Structure formats: C-alpha cells, structure tokens
Amino acid sequence: MTQDVTQAPFGSVFGEHLPIARFDGQRWSSAQVVPLNSVHFGPQTHALHYASACFEGLKGHRQPDGSVAMFRADKNITRFQGSAERLVLPVPPTALCEELFSLAVSRNADITPAAPGSLYLRPTLIGTDPNVGAAGRPSKTAALYVIASPVGEYLPSHPLRILVETQVPRTTPQFGVVKAGANYCMALGLLTRARQDWNADQVLFAAAGAIEETGAANFLLLDEGHLVTPAQTDAFLHGITRDSLLQLARARQWTVEEREVTIDDLRAWAARPTGEMALSGTAAILGGVGELIIDGEVVRVGTGQTGPSTKALRAELQSIQRGERSFEFR
Ligand SMILES: Cc1ncc(COP(=O)(O)O)c(C=O)c1O
Predict the structure, then answer these.
(1) For 160-321, CATH number?
(2) Which residue of 134, 169, 196, 312 has the lowest C-beta tally within 10 Å?
C-alpha cells in the first residue's frame, strides 16, 4: 500500500486480511483469516432482504512501542452482542469476538498509519440463510467478519454546521440503540437534503421534543467545566466515546449532567459566550459545532469556533488512545 491512506475518504481503503467465522445453525466455526475479496454471499442472503445485519466500529491505535492497541474493545463486543440479540441473530461469544478483532489488528498491523491515523475496524454480523421467504423468521445461519481500514480524519477541519431535525426521528424508539445498517439508511434522505438545502455537515435528531443524537455520533454541550448530554434511552446509540468523555470529565471534577436537552435548552446554550457543542464518536472523536440550523434559522454556537473544552477533552482522549498516558476506564 503505497498511497497515503490518511488522505483517502474515511473507510475507503481496506486491509487484505479478513478474519471470519460462520454459524451453521448449531455452532460457530473456528476463526479463519481469508483474503478480503474471497468471501461471497448469494443474492438470496437473508441480510440482503430483511436487514438481519449489525456492525461495530472501533479503532486500533499505534502505541509508543510501535504495537497497535484497540481502544475499549470489550465495550464494542458487549454492544455488538446486544445488537445481535435485538435483531434475533446468533449472538457471537465474547471469546470469538476477541479472537477475530485481535486477528484483524495483528494481520493488518503493517498498514496501520501513525497518529493521527489509525486502523478502523468494522466487525459485521449478517444473517446468511438463503431464503427470501423468511420475512417473519430469523436467519439460523450467520457470518461474522472484521474488516480493517486504515484511516485519517473523519470530520472536516471546520467547525460543524448541524441541521436540527425537529419532526422526523432517525429511527424507531426501540432500535436506535442497535448498531444496524437499517438505521443509517432510514436517515439518509434527510441527511442528503440537509446537505443540499442547508450545506449542513450532519443532522441532529430531536423529533420527540428533546435532542437524541446525530446521524453517526452522540451530542454534547460543554462550557467551562460543565458537560451536558442526553440521558441514554433505547432511542439512540450508547456511544463508547461518549462514555469515555464523561469519565474523563468527571475525573476533571467537571459538572456532568445526563438529562433531557430540549430545543430551548439548545438555543440558550448556544447564546452563552462560552457555550460549546460537539459530536462524539469513534470516527469523529470529538468535533466542535459552529452553527445550528433550527426551524430555518441559523444559530451561532458560542463564538462559532471549536471551543477550549472540546479541544481539551479531545486531546486528552487521543493521548490515552495512543498510549501516551493512562486512564482506568470503568
Ligand atoms: C448513530 C451513532 N451514534 C453514536 C455513535 C458513537 O458511538 P461510539 O462512540 O461508540 O463510536 C456512532 C458511531 O460512531 C453512531 O453511528
């Protein structure tokens, strides 16, 4: 791989080695590593018709000694198993996930870029029954594989411009917590229109009167030693980055509130001279928000720039991920 992968669009360059295991209806096979493009699924595959598919997203980071370490992979495995359960897919055992994730890192370590780049891992679980008549039945068979993608920055470098969607939810109240491709697909029309009509970078969903999350990240309000974020419900994804940032903020003795955040709260926070807002996620890490678009009105957030609290938390999390300092996450 000679190109500078960190300049390629996020997630568009892939490692050649794909760890995979299959469930035959009774038991999981052992882990194998196969060439990326040697895996084929037929057009009648259950997941392609009935969306019996979920995934995860985590990163391997280069450490000072040159090794590559995954960040809080145990949390991704637990969330992955929860998604599988809710989609009535075979739930992969923890030890098998650990083995496949580790193989994805070790076999693709040579293409892992140095910081600020990293190796993005995409564990994927799909229902593989060849049956287009099984709309009302779960797939008995499944495949579990981990794609590795060397990546650079995910977010643009400018402060983000976010359209607040107050009418249409991203997904259903019970499936937001699942990392299922169907959720992303449902939000695509709105996101595309937000880009076209408003030049927005993302959409913040707030259809139930309070904000939930954006299309691919959680949402935080910050202000000099104060962090506020929506309390977790089944309507949105429980981000591991969100959890990590909250732990870091608490360790700094910041006031951390997990509570309902209404549109009025958003407007009031944006009007604070030191008010900050940010998106958090594995890919994004923590990206500052400069402007909101609420009911057709452009609202500047604080100074309109990525603020000092956002920058400080982002830098702290990155230094932990890169093994430059340690922190005991619970
Ligand atoms: C819809 C959605 N919400 C939140 C997040 C943040 O989750 P995490 O911090 O675990 O990456 C993601 C993924 O990045 C996401 O796709």
Answers:
(1) 3.20.10.10
(2) 196
